[in-house]
Amino acid sequence: MTIPSVTYKQFGETVAPVAPVGTKRWIVLYIMVSAILLTTLACWNNLSGRSLIEMFEDDSDTPPPHTEYAKMARYLVHKAEWVSMGSLSTVDAIKGFPMVNIISVADSARGEKSTGTLYFYLTMLDYTAQDLDRDNRLTVMLTLDQDLYCTRNGIDPMEPTCARIMVSGRADKIENGTAEYAFGSRAMFSRHPAAQKWIETDGHNFFLCKLNITQIAVLDFYGGPHYVTMADYLAADPDKRSSSSSNTSERQIPPRFSTTEGTTAMP
């Protein structure tokens, strides 16, 4: 008679549980499928010339590096659909005081490339147009938090790392019937469908304007604002990826305001 051998475990010794055969098969199958998918994905990326990381990133609306001041300015202008517009008040009680208003703007139709020029409608029923008719100097402010980008990323809107720009210049009225008027109107209608009703409403007499820029100040990091030249601003392409985010140039601060003497009323 054969006596079966018996293995005794020591007191307190734990025995590792043995996974059922079915579970092992599923684990092996999962690993094989994952390996096949990753291999296929890597091959596809090599053929398309894209990196694996790029494919999972959606940087179509990612702000440029904070050291690229001109590009940051163009990015914020193109992204903005409204601005805080400051003018010099003509109201008797506060004549000459700074006054601010929310004005809808567009630098191109939605989905089209940036132009860097802000177009907007005004009506003489509103105090901003009355102010600018007397003195067409103005400053607009745009912030990266206009769509809550900073708030969603845990950055207070007042922090320098929540980018903002202050653009100063003069409001120029655009003549109806010109190519620029057609472009600016189409841009506004695209982003602000309500604007179509504004100009069709009797008695309101909305007219199209653009901001003729004198100075651009960018504050997008600690250390104070950076002043962007018009040449750099117009040359920047906010839709083009940066090859380098390094900054080797010194910050040059030109005069804060235009050297133009006197005031100019809108045509």
From TrEMBL:
Q: Which residues cross the membrane?
A: 27-47
Q: Where is the composition biased (Polar residues)?
A: 247-267
Keyword field contains Phosphoprotein = no
| Keyword entries, A-Z | Membrane, Transmembrane, Transmembrane helix
Give the record's GO CC terms: cytoplasm; extracellular space
Which region ranges are annotated with the description Disordered? Answer: 238-267
Keyword check for Transmembrane, yes or no.
Answer: yes
Q: Which residues form the CREG-like beta-barrel domain?
A: 64-234
Question: Which InterPro entries does UniProt cross-reference here?
Answer: CREG_beta-barrel (IPR055343), Split_barrel_FMN-bd (IPR012349)
Instruction: Please report the name of this protein according to its UniProt entry.
Output: CREG-like beta-barrel domain-containing protein
Q: Which organism is it from?
A: Anopheles melas
